[in-house]
Amino acid sequence: MRLALYVTCLVDLMRPSVGFAALRLLEATGVEVVVPAGQTCCGQPAWSAGDRPLAVDLARKAILELEAYDVVVIPSGSCTDQIRNVYPELFADDAHWGPRARALAGRTFELTSYLADVAKVEMATPEFDGSVTYHDSCKGLRGLGIQRQPRELLAKVRGLTLKEMADCEECCGFGGAFSVKFGEVSTRIVDRKCDSISAAGADAVVGGDLGCLLNIEGRLRRRGDETTRVLHIAEVLAGGGEG
Predict the structure, then answer these.
(1) Class of the domain covering 125-237
(2) Model-level pTM?
(3) Maximum pairwise Cα distance, the chain
(4) If you count Cβ atoms within 10 Å of the first and of the last residue's Cβ in the chain, which end, N or C, has fewer?
């Protein structure tokens, strides 16, 4: 089986360590993992901004680059939701692209969903000496139903204690362009999230979407919190987020 790792724009540009961690995790399942060299944006920012023509162009590009693979795995609920749920909608009335979009959607998975529900392979148990609290991203939770999977995987990490924060399912205020267009509202929302993180008293906050994590980390640091670590779940599971 050939598996395509779609690393996402934010991972590529802002924190490549997440992509390398995801690569190690997927290779440990015993499949051939390929990172398609030409991959760019999935089109989610354009779609959210109302630019349908650009979203369509980017969706076609992604379909062409990914449809040859047996499975596509993405370390992001947001990008996965775009391919699984939005691509079929974009091409719902297109006799040529519609079937291709639906076929790709059916074999595209968010990372923790793939590891917990599809691969189901017992991998080497990582270690993390400390406590974490988990942030559920909006697209992963509401668009894909991902909540149980990351917690099941974290429970297998030796030395890790999960301290659930209050309102873990609340938005962090990022929302892509939302945080730029509505800065004051976004700041109020992320402040609520930071309050919940602080109250949980964990050593680190972990999540599955880098956009959320960058937003949370930026606000934590501006509030004077220099100690709470902000980690993608791939980094923890791959042993790169040791406490």
Answers:
(1) alpha beta
(2) 0.94
(3) 54
(4) N
